[in-house]
Design a protein that fits this description.
Layout lengths: L1 H11 L3 E7 L5 E6 L8 H17 L6 E4 L5 H11 L2 E5 L12 E2 L7 E9 L3 H12 L3 E10 L4 H6 L4 E7 H10 L5 H13 L17 H7 L3 H13 L3 E4 L5 H11 L5 E4 L9 H14 L2 E8 L3 H9 L5 H4 L2 E5 L4 H11 L7 E5 L11 H13 L4 E5 L11 E4 L21 H7 L4 E4 L1 H4 L4 H19 L3
The structure holds 5-bromo-uridine-5'-monophosphate.
The site of 5-bromo-uridine-5'-monophosphate has 16 residues, from strand 16 and helix 17.
Length: about 475
């Protein structure tokens, strides 16, 4: 009943017009919807807001903020936000040339899930432009709610970009009600219906907007996690997404390699417990090298116990890992207590510390399945102040704050090969371009080469070029 009332009222105030109109797409249409007039009719705006709110609840649309598409939907989005007590943003048609130069007005956080509101969808082009602008700023878009779908292919064009259109009205609903209530005659009805039948698919006149790749530099800006920020900054500054896995037994050799390879890596990964000659003085030398060459130290400790135990393992014992490592990793198997324990131990330091969760393993026949990986991502989201990414084999989340780090990497000649203890290798290009990971971890590919420093540079260049290719640069 509310919908019928809405249609009749829209017709009465002149939002639905019959005649001959040229649409944005160039198409000549016998019907035109001008919902901008709604701004002058508060009672009707209120009705539209109530109907929108009901639709959101009926279709369980989940979101944090609302974005109105200018100009037609600004009043609709504002009305809806007042109704459901959510905050709103909007994307300017052009960035201002003065003042803040914001393209997006209003307050939002990176990764906020945004519901787009528009008045009318025809081809979907306006919504696609809005999606692009929001995604460029790290805002997630999965749903758009429109008052009227002209039934000319808009929802199909938009869903191709991973956004679902929910519509309150369709042109045929409007025609049916107007005919039933004698607002239009049968001839007008037939003519309009015929137009709809032959113009169901207005193509989008611009390139589709895929979920845009964001650069490391932009991700450093977006993330609130200090460890992730620092790592993205180093990666961007040094143009390196290479982590060297320094799996050697002699600390002197490790220090020599760190000094030689340090300029080309963003991370040096240790297995501190495989060193034969561990001592804290040498650890200090490694820390000094990490400062000299601006890389982070990642102790690949793979914590996996109850919170109380991992807390001691992380900060105490012989190795005192928390003192010198920038970040560590943990299996997600033990759940949030384990993460919490590590987090508590990290809190005693002023400088940022962080942890990666192991969401996938590179080795053959490992026991991790899809559900485990998905639950790991959820655990990371719940602790995103401390967990800033994953050890994984492919990209697991669109959240740009999380970094995806992939071990099991060697150049082509060993692609698809495994060592005789189950390690499986893929190439840097596959990991970065196809599997969309951010950082490659290379151990023996560098260590066993004739000239480790030279080989590391090759891995660095290959991985960074693959990343630039992913960004389309
Ligand atoms: P490699 O020499 O490049 O195969 O060494 C890989 C390193 O990454 C090694 O230190 C492993 O302990 C580490 N690793 C891995 O290979 N696979 C995994 O799934 C995880 C860590 Br988690």
């Amino acid at each position: 009943m509310e919908i019928e009332e809405l249609i009749i009222e829209l017709f009465n105030i002149g939002c639905v017009k019959f005649g001959e109109f040229t649409l944005k797409s160039g198409l000549k249409s016998p019907v035109y919807f001008d919902l901008r007039i709604l701004v002058s009719y508060p009672k009707l705006l209120k009705l539209a807001s109530v109907i929108f709110a009901k639709k959101i609840s009926d279709e369980s649309i989940d979101f944090d903020i609302v974005c109105g598409v200018p100009y037609g939907a600004i009043s609709l989005a504002t009305g809806l936000c007042l109704e459901i007590n959510k905050s709103m943003i909007f994307k300017r048609k052009d960035a201002k040339s003065h003042g803040t130069k914001n393209l997006i007005e209003g307050i939002y956080k990176p990764n906020d899930r945004c519901l787009i509101i528009d008045d009318v969808i025809t081809s979907g082009i306006s919504i696609l432009e809005t999606i692009e602008g929001l995604r460029d700023h790290g805002v997630q878009v999965k749903d758009a709610l429109v008052l009227l779908d002209r039934e000319q292919g808009g929802p199909e064009n938009v869903i191709a970009n991973n956004v679902k259109i929910h519509s309150v009205l369709k042109t045929s609903d409007v025609l049916n009600i107007l005919l039933k209530r004698n607002k239009i005659n049968q001839e007008m009805y037939n003519k309009t219906q015929e137009f709809l039948n032959v113009n169901r698919n207005v193509s989008v006149p611009t390139k589709p907007v895929k979920e845009k790749e964001i650069s490391f530099e932009e991700r450093a800006e977006i993330t609130n996690n200090k460890m992730a920020k620092k790592l993205f900054q180093i990666m961007s500054l040094k143009q390196s997404n290479l982590c060297f896995s320094a799996d050697v037994e002699s600390f002197d050799l490790l220090l020599k390699l760190a000094d030689e390879i340090g300029p080309n890596i963003c991370i040096l990964k240790t297995h501190i417990d495989i060193l034969n000659d561990f001592n804290m003085d040498k650890v200090q030398e490694l820390v000094n090298l990490s400062i000299k060459h601006n890389f982070l130290i990642f102790e690949d400790r793979k914590f996996a116990d109850i919170g109380n135990t991992v807390k001691s393992q992380y900060s105490g014992g012989v190795y005192k890992i928390s003192q010198w490592s920038n970040f560590v990793n943990a299996h997600s198997i033990a759940g949030s207590g384990c993460v919490q324990g590590l987090k508590e131990a990290a809190l005693q330091y002023d400088e940022p510390k962080g942890c990666l969760l192991i969401a996938q393993l590179s080795c053959k026949n490992n026991l991790i399945d899809k559900t485990y990986t998905e639950k790991t991502v959820k655990l990371a989201e719940e602790h995103s102040d401390f967990i800033f990414g994953f050890i994984c084999q492919n990209k697991l989340t669109d959240n740009p704050g999380f970094i995806h780090i992939t071990p099991g990497i060697q150049f082509n000649e060993n692609n698809g090969m495994s060592d005789n203890l189950g390690q499986q290798y893929t190439t840097p290009e596959m990991a970065i371009l196809q599997n969309k990971c951010d950082v490659i971890v290379v151990g023996r590919g560098i260590l066993k080469s004739e000239n480790p420093a030279e080989t590391a540079l090759k891995y660095k260049n290959t991985a960074y070029e693959a990343y630039l290719k992913r960004l389309n640069l």
